[in-house]
UniProtKB/TrEMBL annotation, chain A:
Limits of the ABC transporter domain: 14-248
Catalysis performed (reactions): a polar amino acid(out) + ATP + H2O = a polar amino acid(in) + ADP + phosphate + H(+)
Protein name: ABC-type polar-amino-acid transporter
Subcellular location: Cell membrane
Automatic annotation (TrEMBL), chain B:
Location relative to the cell: Cell membrane
Topological type in the membrane: Multi-pass membrane protein
Predominant localisation class: membrane
Keywords of the record: Amino-acid transport, Cell membrane, Membrane, Transmembrane, Transmembrane helix, Transport
Protein family membership: Belongs to the binding-protein-dependent transport system permease family. HisMQ subfamily.
Alphabetical list of Gene3D superfamilies matching this protein: MetI-like
Transmembrane feature ranges: 12-31, 60-80, 101-119, 125-144, 231-251
Official protein name in the record: Polar amino acid ABC transporter, inner membrane subunit
CDD domains xrefs: TM_PBP2
Organism of derivation: Arthrobacter crystallopoietes BAB-32
NCBIfam families attached to this UniProt entry: HEQRo_perm_3TM
GO cellular component: ATP-binding cassette (ABC) transporter complex
GO molecular function list: transmembrane transporter activity
Amino acid sequence: MAADNLLQKDRPAIEVRNLCKNFGDNEVLKGIDFHVDQGEVVCVIGPSGSGKSTLLRCVNRLEEPTSGTVLVEGVDITDPETDLDKIRTRIGMVFQQFNLFPHLSVLRNLTLAQQRAKKRSKAEAEEIARKNLEKVGLGNRENAYPAQLSGGQQQRVAIARALSMNPDMMLFDEPTSALDPELVGDVLGVMRQLADEGMTMMVVTHEMGFAREVGDRVVFMDGGVVVEQGDPKEVLGNPQHARTQAFLSKVL
Amino acid sequence: MKPSARRRLFRGVLYAVFVIVLAAVILVADWEAIQTNFFNPQVAAAAFPDVIITAAKNTIIYTAIAFVGGLILGLILALMKLSPVAPYRWVATAYVEIFRGLPALLVIFGFAFAVPIAFDWRPPGGSAGAGLIALIIVSAAYIAETLRAGIEAVPAGQREAARSLGMNPSWTMVSVVLPQAFRIVTPPLTNELVILIKDTSLLFIAGMALGERELTTFARDSVSQMANATPLVIAALMYLIITLPLTQLVAKLERHNKRGR
Ligand SMILES: Nc1ncnc2c1ncn2[C@@H]1O[C@H](COP(=O)(O)OP(=O)(O)OP(=O)(O)O)[C@@H](O)[C@H]1O
Ligand SMILES: [Mg+2]
């Protein structure tokens, strides 16, 4: 068992091989090879409709891959024998639209899955939840309901909710795209802190500043393929591909 | 004529018609006969207290049983209708279509008389019990459609958030989807409840013992006993006392929901 764990440490946190995904006859992912190493922060950028969300959602199988392999810490998540619910507790996910549970208080949002999926006691779940609310700067809002919070606060609660499962890695799908500009900074600040603590992160984003400063690697996708990837300063500062150049000239 | 003058004239005519009709009714109506036949104090006194301690009470009990039973069966049917297993969907769809298409009276009659004969079945609670089972079965068909719509109205992101946290499909349904679905369908469900209160009046066709009678059966019996319509008026008032707060509640919830969006 111990040897097993050691072996897994060498493996990438996420490894995607030749991943294809079709929606009907719409080929959205056309043979993606992609990985995120342990402790690495990978930012995925690209034009709208290029398949960034689809790739991210295939990692925890919210989307069913059409073909190819997705390994999470060495475990093939497309294998029917894999306990998907258990794997998912190790992969935190943050959505563009926050997706907090509107009928539950902030604290309950954070404890529900801990109790249901991790079988933690209420007391333990609440202790962990409070610690994570503190961490995202919302320690005083545990009794609020999501509708009473600003977008930025809701997204930070959503991050705290994902963290409360003690995941090994975090997936972010445009976490700041639905926010008013003045609220973006708080959320990016929390993500930056997570990165500094060594969290493995896959971040789909349009925030080029974040990608440059926090990302260890940037992956540029277009038309369902990875066009270019590498050091953020290289890819963003000196893109090699015409499509990357065209995209960056529009967003920078 | 100016448009504003025409509008004023038109309004004046409407008021005039109203006043004339009202006056005609007041003058023509035989108030004495109406009072002795519909608002007769002696007949009214005779109806009490049974109309409350038996009839109104039974109406409420029957409604509660039919509604709770209908909710449970309706929820099962709604989940079957959304099931990935096709035969479950077929069964649920057929059920809903059949029992929404049949008159409730016919179903109640069938369960009280036809089914017991055909299958040599002794319904629990006698014919009132058989009628109630029929009422549950019919209301479940309507409630199932309401609940299915509510479940589908919960945004997909809610289910995805719960699943991405590792919650299994059952917990996701119970802790995340259903609480929100029930909130969405509270106004239409309250409407179903009001309809059900009135539908308990159809139970008379099952034939009920004295102590089992609900408002309408009680009123019918009293009317023929006393040869006077006053019990009917009392029963009508009882129905309104029960249903008016509920319809007001629905209106309030709908206003509240509209503002929420
Ligand atoms: N559930 C779905 N059913 C059908 N088509 C879908 C579905 N989800 C995504 N698509 C299609 O897949 C393509 C890629 O979508 P995806 O959301 O992955 O793009 P994206 O890169 O995340 O874009 P954006 O920046 O707009 O979020 C689009 O053409 C989209 O219409
Ligand atoms: Mg997207």
